[in-house]
Design goal:
Elements lengths: L1 E5 L2 E5 L9 H7 L4 H15 L5 E5 L2 E6 L1 E8 L3 E5 L2 H6 L8 E2 L4 E4 L6 H17 L3
Antiparallel strand pairs: 1-2, 3-4, 4-5, 5-6, 6-8, 7-8
Helix pairs in contact: 2-4
């Protein structure tokens, strides 16, 4: 990765080139087995969000947005990550036992099945939290 500096902030640029324009483009650029995992995660998230939720690229990774971004997800060398916000991760700490987590990220190893039931549960909680904050 190379870094570029803009307005005093550092941003990461992919060595592969330009940012993906669409979620389909992002997934197509992802090598297997992460590509299959992303497709499964995408379907699980889509099943858990309201129909008016849009798929976008945000911070160079796929996201689902409904007034605000609800969740992001992305592929890495050895895992795919879900970014449902720190408060959701904190609320579901027990359910996440066995996964690598950080303040706002859950890592799903590529060599394990995608926990679609868990992903749907997390996303539904994130939608409910976002809806409760709406004016």
């Amino acid at each position: 990765m190379s870094r570029t500096k803009r307005s005093g902030r550092s941003t990461r640029r992919s060595v592969a080139g330009a940012a993906p324009a669409t979620v389909d483009d992002y997934i197509a650029r992802t090598p297997e087995p992460a590509r299959s995992m992303l497709r499964t995660m995408r379907a699980a998230i889509r099943a858990a969000v309201p129909p008016d939720t849009a798929e976008i690229i945000s911070y160079r990774i796929p996201a689902f947005r409904r007034k605000r971004v609800l969740v992001w997800y992305a592929a890495f060398a050895n895992h795919c990550s879900l970014f449902p916000t720190g408060s959701i991760i904190e609320a579901f700490q027990r359910d996440l036992d066995g996964y690598v987590i950080s303040k706002g990220t859950i890592q799903f190893p590529l060599d394990r099945p995608v926990p679609t039931v868990l992903i749907k549960k997390l996303v539904r909680a994130r939608v409910a939290a976002a809806d409760s904050r709406r004016p």
